[in-house]
Backbone:
């Protein structure tokens, strides 16, 4: 785990960035403020589920237009029963959807998830680390979302002692709120709306072996 001082918004420069998420709305819930605060990023968002859901898919592409970024969707099984998918299936889809380029930064889920619990989040985070570790995707840094809900005791909260902790301005938070409630169309009392945070946090890795060791350690390092 990288132990450098916490990163401030003004220190984050222009980068070629890939954001790899499980669902349309994950990119906003866990990293939307960070993306909006960095308009110079050349950002490409990969969403692994719901391409076959015409309503959710259209909303995702509408969000991309608002963010002024590019992206693409896949259609992994996302049924409520959360059937376990193989590592190979998820990794192959990422390789199919993600442009094969070198990235300054990749942002994705934690392999331990952001709340209790969604398998697709955990599987996505694990797949990204595996692909980086074996040299099938290429990046200088990996940031994974750093949130927890204390086993459903509250809505997901950013972890304050994560490597990167960004406080959002009121203006940025309102933009994030509107993307969830207006563009994605979630009700104001929905789980998604209640999970919109005014800060965003990430674990940061600059070495694939460190990320792989973290994944296989079985606990979130702090």
Residues:
């Amino acid at each position: 785990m990288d132990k450098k001082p916490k990163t401030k918004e003004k220190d984050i420069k222009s980068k070629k960035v890939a954001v790899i998420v499980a669902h349309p709305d994950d990119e906003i819930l866990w990293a939307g403020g960070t993306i909006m605060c960095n308009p110079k990023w050349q950002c490409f968002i990969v969403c692994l589920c719901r391409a076959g859901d015409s309503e959710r898919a259209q909303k995702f592409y509408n969000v991309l237009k608002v963010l002024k970024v590019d992206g693409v969707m896949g259609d992994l099984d996302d049924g409520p029963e959360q059937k376990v998918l193989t590592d190979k299936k998820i990794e192959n889809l990422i390789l199919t959807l993600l442009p094969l380029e070198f990235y300054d930064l990749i942002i994705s889920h934690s392999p331990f998830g952001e709340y209790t619990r969604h398998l697709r989040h955990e599987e996505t985070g694990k797949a990204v680390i595996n692909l980086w570790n074996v040299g099938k995707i290429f990046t200088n840094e990996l940031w994974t979302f750093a949130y927890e809900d204390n086993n459903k005791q509250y809505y997901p909260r950013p972890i304050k002692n994560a490597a990167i902790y960004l406080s959002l301005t009121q203006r940025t938070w309102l933009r994030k709120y509107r993307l969830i409630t207006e563009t994605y169309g979630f009700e104001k009392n929905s789980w998604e709306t209640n999970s919109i945070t005014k800060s965003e946090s990430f674990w940061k890795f600059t070495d694939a072996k460190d990320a792989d060791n973290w994944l296989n350690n079985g606990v979130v390092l702090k």
Remarks:
- The radius of gyration is 16 Å.
